[in-house]
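note to self: dont lose this again. the chain is below, predicted strucutre after it. 95 aa total, dont forget to put it in the shared folder this time
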Amino acid sequence: MMGRIRTPGSRPGLSGGSSCGLESKTNEWNCGERADYTKVIELNAKDAAAYRYRGVAHEMTGQREKAIEDYRKSLALAPESKFTQAQLKRLGVGP
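---
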């Protein structure tokens, strides 16, 4: 792995927080935390932060539509989230 970055507001208790790494062999992003956030969502479908951070992981791996879907779910649960509002606006879509 070449580098690691942390997504905003990483959540303790998940595997190493929320970080993604750039794979040196493939030069592609790897965000294994999506599985962690999916598990959190399975346990609590009203966890806005889990949708938000899974959206970040989707976006970092080029899965724009999945990211938008998760950002919208997050915003529906926590409409006051400036971060999620900004992510959707940056992607050129509305809630």
